[in-house]
């Protein structure tokens, strides 16, 4: 098991919590077509927070549960900075995503 797994799992929980705090956590999933998007971050089908909830978090959970290799790189913060430019209420979410990015690039 990758020694970063516990920290990554904790970070994912914090990201989920922040989405809930912001009131962006949704009960109903996007359409199957939206979930099947081939665009980066599914930008053609859903909002970034939806992508975090319905694609990013579940995929990362599978990686952790199945002891699969973590990605070699992560650029989630860059996307968040573009999407949330000037939105002060997203500061904590962006910090959490930055920490996730740092965890991914740390040496195993």
List keywords for this structure.
108 residues, de novo design (two linked rop proteins), single chain, 5 helices, mainly alpha
Please give a structural write-up.
With 108 residues, this protein is mainly α. The chain has a single domain, classed as YqcC-like (de novo design (two linked rop proteins)), CATH 1.20.1440.40. Helix content is 57%, strand content 0%. The chain is built from 5 helices and no strands. It is globular and about 35 Å long. It starts with a helix and ends with a helix. The model has no long low-confidence stretch (mean pLDDT 96).
Give a nutshell description of this structure.
57% of the residues lie in helices and 0% in strands.
């Amino acid at each position: 098991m990758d020694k970063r797994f516990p920290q990554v799992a904790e970070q994912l929980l914090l990201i989920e919590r922040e989405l809930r705090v912001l009131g962006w956590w949704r009960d109903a999933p996007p359409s199957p077509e939206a979930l099947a998007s081939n665009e980066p971050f599914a930008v053609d089908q859903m909002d970034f927070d939806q992508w975090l909830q319905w694609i990013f978090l579940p995929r990362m959970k599978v990686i952790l549960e199945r002891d699969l290799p973590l990605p070699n790189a992560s650029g989630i913060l860059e996307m968040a900075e573009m999407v949330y430019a000037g939105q002060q209420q997203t500061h904590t979410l962006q910090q959490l995503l930055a920490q996730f990015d740092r965890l991914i690039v740390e040496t195993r």
